[in-house]
């Protein structure tokens, strides 16, 4: 393994002092139920002030152990729970054990021709506010809380010891990046360990070759959570003319092409993403179906271009709509629902009779029932009620263990 960034050695050591916390009744019930978050207003008593990353030991009102987690004084989520039920020593060995459990849950993916997937899915794998995405031999750690900084060295050692990556890249959330003075010299896109990286890395997903810009791309460079939905599109695409809206780097488009689509149109506002989609198609020209498919690009605002296509009389036999999260906070929910409704109508307008609509949402603030109901409501209002083919949720490498973690949902339906 190549050298480690000097910034890693400059990180603080975890404190030996523990914070003892007792909870108010509602927070106590939540933690007893396995919830991974303790909010500031749920803390009834605390023995001392704490710094980011201090170990917090949580007790019930009678002084009995409940859980242990990472303290974050600057977040409304004051403690991110690592372990419930019985006392545990949180150290490098503990992180290595949890990481091994996460890897075991994903062992079947490699055999299916996939070496790009989420290895650690935050709270749902026992690493709250931390994810690890794997792209071949390049691994990306993304942090959403400064509470991980004193423990990052231990996580990195556990990861390199178990997985033996060629390199490990660090991505930092926007919230953390706002105050670089608190990052101990770390920065978004930094290579923590391994050789420098120039340009995207390549990986396999169900036998298809993709690139990912792990340094600058959205999330960690690719939307790994849609792998199963892309595979469903492949099953339904044979002989079809397909429109992929919010196509990003062309994941759904490429699967549709391998599935036998005759023409695929990728629509996205980002020119760099469109260029990456072209490169992804080029990477797979050895596949006869991909090589035979006509791939076209449309660059611009999705709502405007879909409306323009409809007015021009364009029609498709499959329309895939996978928009970004429209509701990142509670105040945006109504606007998000209105946007989803508009997209459903536009998608149906662009579908030929008997065509297939694929509609996805990645917003946790719009629950699945609301999302699926609005699709059916808008379809009926258009006079074309949807006949459901399938509903899907989270994939194997994106497990869900608490309600707020559930965000992804997708409907496949035939539109008469």
Overview features:
416 residues; alpha/beta; Archaeosine Trna-guanine Transglycosylase, Chain: A, domain 4; Transcription Regulator spoIIAA; Rossmann fold; 3 domains; six-stranded mixed beta sheet
Q: Describe it for me?
A:
By secondary structure, the protein is α/β, with parallel strands linked by helices. It has helices spanning 6-9, 25-32, 92-105, 107-111, 152-163, 174-177, 227-236, 251-258, 271-283, 288-292, 302-311, 333-349, 368-381; strands at 18-23, 37-39, 43-46, 55-59, 65-71, 77-84, 116-121, 130-135, 138-143, 167-172, 190-193, 201-205, 208-212, 241-245, 263-268, 294-299, 316-321, 351-361, 387-392, 409-415. The chain has a seven-stranded mixed beta sheet, sandwiched between helices. Strands 2-6-5-4-1-3 form a six-stranded mixed beta sheet.
Short description:
The protein has 416 residues and is an alpha/beta fold.
What characteristic shape results from the CA principal axes?
Answer: globular
Beta content:
25-35%
Domains, number: 3
Helical content band: 25-40%
Major sheet summary line: 7 strands, mixed
**CATH homologous superfamily placement of the largest domain:** Vaccinia Virus protein VP39
Mean pLDDT: 96
By CATH reckoning, the class of the largest domain would read: Alpha Beta
Number of DSSP strand runs: 20
Q: Report the CATH architecture of the largest domain.
A: 3-Layer(aba) Sandwich
> First CA to last CA: what distance?
57 Å
Give me the side-by-side strand order of the main sheet.
Answer: 16-15-14-17-18-20-19
Query: Structural class, from helix and strand content?
Result: alpha/beta
Number of helices: 13
CATH topology of the largest domain: Rossmann fold
């Amino acid at each position: 393994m190549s050298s480690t960034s000097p910034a890693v050695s400059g990180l603080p050591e975890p404190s030996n002092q523990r914070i003892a916390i007792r909870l108010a009744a509602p927070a106590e019930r939540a933690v007893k139920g396995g919830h991974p978050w303790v909010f500031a207003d749920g803390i009834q008593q605390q023995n001392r002030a704490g710094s980011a990353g201090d170990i917090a030991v949580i007790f019930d009102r009678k002084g009995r152990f409940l859980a242990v987690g990472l303290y974050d004084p600057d977040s409304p989520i004051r403690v991110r729970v690592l372990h419930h039920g019985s006392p545990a020593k949180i150290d490098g060995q503990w992180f290595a054990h949890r990481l091994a459990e996460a890897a075991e849950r994903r062992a079947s993916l490699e055999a299916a021709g996939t070496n790009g997937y989420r290895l650690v899915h935050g709270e749902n794998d026992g690493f709250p506010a931390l994810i690890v995405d794997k792209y071949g031999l390049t691994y990306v750690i993304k942090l959403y809380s400064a509470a991980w900084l004193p423990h990052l060295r231990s996580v990195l050692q556990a990861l390199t010891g178990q997985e033996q990556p060629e390199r490990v890249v660090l991505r930092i959330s926007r919230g953390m990046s706002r105050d670089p003075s608190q990052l101990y010299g770390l920065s978004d896109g930094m290579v923590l360990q391994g050789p420098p990286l120039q340009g995207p890395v390549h990986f396999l997903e169900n036998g298809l070759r993709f690139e990912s810009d792990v340094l600058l791309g959205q999330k960690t460079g690719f939307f790994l959570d849609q792998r199963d939905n892309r595979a469903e599109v492949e099953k339904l695409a044979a002989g079809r003319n397909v429109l992929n809206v919010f196509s990003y780097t062309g994941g759904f488009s490429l699967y549709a092409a391998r599935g036998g689509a005759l023409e695929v149109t990728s629509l996205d506002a980002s020119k760099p993403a469109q260029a990456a989609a072209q490169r992804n198609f080029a990477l797979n020209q050895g596949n006869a179906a991909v090589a035979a498919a006509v791939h076209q690009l449309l660059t611009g605002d999705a709502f405007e271009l879909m409306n323009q296509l409809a007015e021009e009389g364009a029609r498709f036999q499959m329309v895939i709509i996978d928009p970004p999260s429209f509701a990142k906070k509670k105040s945006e929910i109504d606007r998000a629902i209105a946007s989803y409704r508009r997209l459903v109508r536009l998608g149906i307008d662009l579908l030929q009779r008997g065509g297939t609509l694929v509609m996805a949402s990645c917003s946790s603030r719009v629950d699945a029932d609301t999302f699926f109901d609005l699709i059916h409501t808008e379809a009926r209002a258009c006079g074309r009620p949807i006949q459901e083919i399938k509903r899907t949720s989270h994939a194997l490498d994106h497990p869900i263990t608490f309600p707020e973690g559930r965000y992804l949902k997708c409907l496949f339906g035939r539109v008469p």
